[in-house]
């Protein structure tokens, strides 16, 4: 990364809140100090030990998933050299024991990597959100906590919109717009460290001989350097690489979708398309490309005017009942 890389734009909250238009943005932004008054942020500014003690006040025998890696991985949770496995292992244990391990690792000159990712706050630390929360205008987001030491999460995207709040420590996000897919050298869709396909490029030390198009991706990158209380909005489908830069880091994030809960993830459609269309002859693929454009990507009400509204079935506007019927039809077809 060089000084020529663009930095994520900074915006201001309105009366301490994010108005609806900001929560529907299509480009990332930072709000400095949005969570500066959280007790967790204030305790973290005092010391890692103070933040640790504050978190333990809300612990109620919760078990969590943790990723553990040896010092040799440099905090980067990734594949092994042959992409047949990973350079870390997963364990499940009590959150207070993970905090104990993190405290012990802070004393070591060359600690291993420890990371508790995407854990429900209300499940693991009930009551924490009472004084450490954001007002998202009536939305009911999935609120998660991420706890660890100096770790690196490879470039990936998420389907929901996302607000990430640095509560303790410092983080660096490197973001890429969705159209940079071809330049990010993404690995397997269905075999990856944490459920999302990731870029194989090490953002901290890119190998341009192996990944030459990554130089083009960097021309579109935006970097967010964040401290305690800062919040970053990451729009749906934006690629992001995350570096935790302190010996003890806590991040709180909120995920929500701008679509109804009954809609399935588009990833299912992608995997079905691989199963049903990717290996068709070129002319047939082009025909299906036109069909998808007609019905999905460039829909025009005039395309359906010849069908009575009561007879459009799957082509009707989708609602919860229609989604249930459509899902049942798909399951029967897949399982026949």
From TrEMBL:
<dbReference type="InterPro" id="IPR014710">
    <property type="entry name" value="RmlC-like_jellyroll"/>
</dbReference>
<dbReference type="InterPro" id="IPR041667">
    <property type="entry name" value="Cupin_8"/>
</dbReference>
<dbReference type="InterPro" id="IPR003347">
    <property type="entry name" value="JmjC_dom"/>
</dbReference>
<protein>
    <submittedName>
        <fullName>Cupin-like domain-containing protein</fullName>
    </submittedName>
</protein>
<feature type="domain" description="JmjC">
    <location>
        <begin position="114"/>
        <end position="271"/>
    </location>
</feature>
<dbReference type="Pfam" id="PF13621">
    <property type="entry name" value="Cupin_8"/>
</dbReference>
